[in-house]
Amino acid sequence: MRRAAVAVAAGAMAVSLAACGSAKESGDNADSTGSAKKGNDIKVGLLLPENATARYEKFDRPLIEKKVKELTDNKGEVVYANAKQDASTQNQQVDTMVTNEVDVLIVDAVDSKAIAGSVKKAKDAGIPVVAYDRLAEGPIDAYTSFDNVTVGKTQGEALLKALGDKAKDGQIVMMNGSSTDPNAAQFKQGAHDVLDGKVKVGREYDTKEWKPENANSNMEGAISALGKDKIVGVYSANDGMAGGIITALKAAGIADIPVTGQDAELAGVQRIVTGEQYMSVYKPYPQEADVAAEMAVALAQGKSLDSIAKDKVDSPTTKAVPSVLVPVVSLTKDNIKDTVIKDGIYTVNEICAGKYKAACDKIGLK
After folding, report:
1. Are strands 311-313 and 280-282 parallel, antiparallel or unpaired?
2. H helices of 275-330, where?
3. Tell me: the pLDDT tens digits for 267-290?
4. Strand locations in 178-308, DSSP E?
């Protein structure tokens, strides 16, 4: 199933690459950006939200930079800034990008609402904006991410599978992401769609800024309120928080209960190998990054997105945004080889280094 999804995505990307390299006339979408037609000598502003989560510096940034170079015959430039989880800083970074006259912006918003005014500033300056990974508000021109409701459903389904009969009698704790992140609300929605009516949610939290230390504190509170013998599993919206949650569980003497995650961070994958974490959601970042770069280059060059973005998504402020949603995969110890290793995200040596070698040997990861 995953190979089929990847094959379809690859085919779609091949078509879009051909479109990016052609002399195709601008469509209605390109005309709406106010961007004049340009060649390969373009400047792409890339704004990522934080660096506490490993994916942004390890995957997203270098992948987008590489793809922009490929699409522009090495003439395109990526100007990068990271907001370090501060919405005000990110707004200032947009202002700087506008002042420096970048040709297009790729923005992964710290706060989807707070960024709206800055998106409008860019738009008024004739700079199109691609919302990346999170659906920013304001007059964005394009959006690419993963199907976030499906991410939550995937986590919920995995947790129910791991719980089995324990779901009938025990309670779970739900550790959702930040309330300022629209993706977190969609993850939560998808998880509730699956979990509601099948397992009791003893405590539920929206975790400030997605920080592991906040998840750790919340988990300590849940253990105190519910009692350590009553908790049979934890829904964690991502791997970073799962690390903080598992630390709290260990401190309370709670072991062998399933904890979910997301992002397939190296530490998360290693915890899956040892059995401390049950699963993560693997999101093929190369596909998402490639699509964002294709959209950005096309918009900077005044070209239509018709051949790239086949779907439309509504934000709270903008209707029918050209969009590409990339499929996701439930990652457990059973498919590590067929996902993150096969796709070149990590090597076996990276995952199985040091103290993890014995656990890797036990599950046949060599």
Report:
1. unpaired
2. 285-300
3. 999 999 999 999 999 999 899 999
4. 200-206, 231-236, 280-282
Nearest to 238 by CA among 146, 341, 144: 146
Q: How far is CA 62 from CA 230, 259, 342, in A?
A: 44, 30, 19
What the block records as the tokens of 261 is 């995650």
- Nearest-angstrom CA–CA distance, 131 and 142: 6
CA gap 186, 193 in Å, rounded = 10
Token pair 């800024």 is at which residue?
209
In this structure, what token pair is assigned to residue 194? Answer: 């699956």
Q: What tokens appear for 211 in the block?
A: 């920080």
Instruction: Identify the burial level of 186 via C-beta atoms within 10 angstroms of its C-beta, where 0-12 means exposed, 13-18 middle and 19 or more buried.
Output: buried
> Quick check: pTM over 0.70?
yes
Q: Both tokens of residue 224?
A: 């105190």
Estimate the share of the chain in helix, then strand, then coil, as percent rounded to the nearest 5. 45, 15, 35
Backbone phi, psi, residue 172, to 5°: -115, 160
What's the token pair of residue 74?
Answer: 């090495």
Site of tokens 């005309």: 31
For 142-157, give the DSSP string.
Answer: EEEEE-HHHHHHHHHH
* Cα–Cα distances in angstroms (integers) from residue 328 to residues 204, 242, 352, in the given order: 24, 19, 24
Q: Is 33's pLDDT higher than 80?
A: no
On average, the pLDDT of the chain sits at: 91
Q: Which of 67, 20, 15, 25 is nearest to 44 (CA)?
A: 67
Angle of helix 116-124 versus helix 87-99 axis, rounded to 10: 0
Per residue in 180-219, pLDDT (tens digit) is: 899 999 999 999 999 999 999 999 999 999 999 999 999 9
Contact between 140 and 318 under an 8 Å Cβ cutoff? The reply is yes
Rounded distance between C-alpha atoms, residue 358 and residue 360, angstroms: 5
Residues 6+ apart with CB under 8 A from 121: 94, 95, 98
79 and 98 Cβ atoms separated by less than 8 Å: no
| Torsions phi, psi for 319 (to 5 deg) | -95, 150
β pairing state of 129-132 and 104-107: parallel
Per DSSP, 259 falls in state B
Interval 61-77 mean pLDDT:
97
